[in-house]
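Notes, p. 3: input format for complexes.
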Amino acid sequence: MTTRTVFGACPHDCPDTCALQVTVENERVIKVQGRAEHPNTHGALCTKVSRYAERTYHAERVLHPLKRVSKKTEAPRFVQVSWADAIADIAARLKAVRDPQCIQPYSYAGTMGLIQGEAMAGRLWNALGAARLDRTICASAGGAGLALTYGHKLGMHTRHFAGAKLIIIWGSNSITSNLHFWTYANQAKREGAKLVCIDPRRTETADKCHQHIAVLPGTDGALALGLMHELIRNDWLDRDYIESHVDGWDELRAKALAWPPERVAETCGITADEVRGLARDYADRDVMEAPAAIRMNYGLQRVRGGGNAVRLIALLPCLTGAWRHPSGGALLSASGWNAPYKNPELERPDLLAGRQPRMVNMSTIGDALLQADPPIEAVVVYNSNPVAVAPESPKVVKGFQREDLFTVVLEHFMTDTADLADYVLPATTQLEHLDVHTSYGHTDVLMNQAAIAPLGEAKTNTQIFRELAAAMGLTDKAFSATDEELAAQAFTPDIDLDLLRSQGWQPLPIPDAPFANGGFRTPNGRAQAAGADFVPNYESAQAAPELAARYPLAMISPPARNFLNSSFVNVKSLRDIEGEPVIEMYADDAAARGLADGTLVAAFNDRGRYVAKLRVSPRARPGVVNGLGVWWRKLGVQGSNVNEVTHQRLTDMGNAPAFYDCLVEVEAA
Ligand code: SF4
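Output follows (669 residues plus iron/sulfur cluster):
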């Protein structure tokens, strides 16, 4: 028996980017664990990725190229074909598209790896002049808000939350989606810190905090303005910090003074005392003795005003001077810290040779597939499952059902999107390929070594795109780079690949208190407050009273604990824990509709109908239902998931989807 240990990195869309230790026995992975030596992983993985071996060896893995033999509106039927035939036919079909801009790549964070993500794929699309993809589906509203305010996606070190005396967890179910931050928050709690959770849903994280403030979805910006109102009225400001490091303060001050606690309470669906109390907790303290820290997550920016909400919250530590302490400040994303270490040429933008192909927003792929002019003729999907995850899925499904659309999907499993493909190509999992990773939660760079050879006939994404490039007659040296060479090209020389190979990670040199003396990454080094404002939801009593009268319940769709976006839904042991698709509803709302716990219900609006089991639960606040996602449609009830009812309108900045800005009514199904 031979046993070896291989170092890896978690590829999933999660801020923690854990360092993995993979045990291989007789060329089979028997264990995937978190590395104890990696400071941000501290030996623990979430339940999902602890089952990564089960996912890799899943009996339903796609292990051979498959070609569709049924109509797209019929039950999917595929036959196995050879790689040579699949690549030759796909290359010919893509070459037959007259305008390369009508070839649409579609990808996101199915892997966060730089190599199996866009390194080789981007080269192919650039060389062809294929349409570009605006990758907005998750984080771009908040990212744009941070960039406007701080100059980039920057924030505190996660580890320094352990030293805070007040932690506001804002729009995040950390226990589910940011587990390793939660370890630090717990440490702070044990040492006397107060934890406050702001979230429309009473999450598992809210259960463990000292206080839960259940705002209505999309009203976080109003709460931030209300907190500022109290800081100003009580003179809990660090005037020196504001004067030295903030632009636009007079404008912001005037806006905040228009938001007294009573107005905030009415808008947010909370009490004025909750606003006053939180402001007192946040600001009435010695910044150096009792630092206050805010951990935002992306849930709060999935609304029309998401970018502005992030701006306003990100400005709070600038008003109190909380940034002066390493354990004070805010964090939504740390990905801007690693940007200077990445090679902007990795995807070879020079291969575009001056062309500027059209840009299609991934968040409105439903409309794009049905309405783009000239029409999208071919789609190549990798690292994503748009039929399940993109908003307003009835339109996405209709788009992918077009018989004149040629669709290729690189996948591990027959997802909802793979079911609508012309070709499904078997891709490797993280255990079967090399990759390098940055993180948006911590500031280390990691390497993932292949632990085993590809299963069946699976190939790496890079190899599939290399072969397609060759079959399409592209001969640039860019397409012969090996994965090792791509890894070497991914970063500036500051990143030591030998260290990544031997240790598995390299920390970046980021100061402990990065903005203690200002130094934001804006052009003048000052945080920018001008223009930040509260923007109400599209679908709210304020903005659309007629719609709110017909569909009086707001619906949010936060992730189910054991799924990660739509990944892991087909891992039976995890799906068994989740049980079935669920809509959580407050008891009085259920009683008013005569709906009993455990019955099958439909959340519906003008866009569609999502069917799930009703759970009458204190996790839902009055007026809001929680549709936990993202189930695969075919594993859901009556082939539906939450995105049946979400819409394709975009956020105030960043062109992102406003998933949690969604009105529905609920009835017995
Ligand atoms: S999903 Fe997040 S918590 Fe789970 S192993 Fe990956 S990085 Fe770690």
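The first strand starts at residue 3 and ends at 9.
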